[in-house]
Write a structure and sequence with these properties.
The chain has 128 residues and is of the alpha+beta class. The chain is built from 3 helices and 11 strands.
């Protein structure tokens, strides 16, 4: 079976081609949910299901991405040889045989201005 059912990930956030900090992110899959501030590291539980990432920087920018789990082939051969394939099926069921990319870069999108601010004329707000 694989070494660990958990994996440490590094999450970075990019807005307008620049890395930004202080971004609140929620990562989740079918076995859990984790909160973190990017850039930074978080330890998640491995799963064969995708990892959803939702990030927000105040009211300035947001992001939502999904990362597919990949079969961890580094332990696959050992599992097949040592356990006659049983370890592979246990890892597949538990998710421990899967992993996500070690470094995740989330591309932030600028938030749209509020509707009242988008069409507001600065001269309309003057007080005489």
């Amino acid at each position: 079976m694989s070494e660990s059912p958990v994996q440490q990930l590094e999450v970075r956030a990019v807005l307008d081609y620049r890395e930004i900090g202080g971004v609140g992110c929620i990562l989740s899959n079918d076995v859990g949910r984790w909160y973190m501030i990017a850039p930074g590291r978080v330890t998640v539980t491995r799963s064969s299901e995708p990892l959803s990432i939702s990030c927000k920087k105040g009211s300035a920018a947001t992001a939502a991405e999904v990362v597919q789990a990949r079969l961890d082939t580094s332990n696959l051969m050992g599992n097949l040889v040592i356990s006659a394939g049983l370890g592979y099926f246990v890892d597949r069921h538990s998710g421990a045989g899967y992993g996500y990319p070690a470094i995740l870069t989330v591309v932030m999108q600028p938030s749209a201005p509020p509707p009242e601010a988008a069409g507001a004329n600065p001269l309309d707000t003057r007080v005489f």
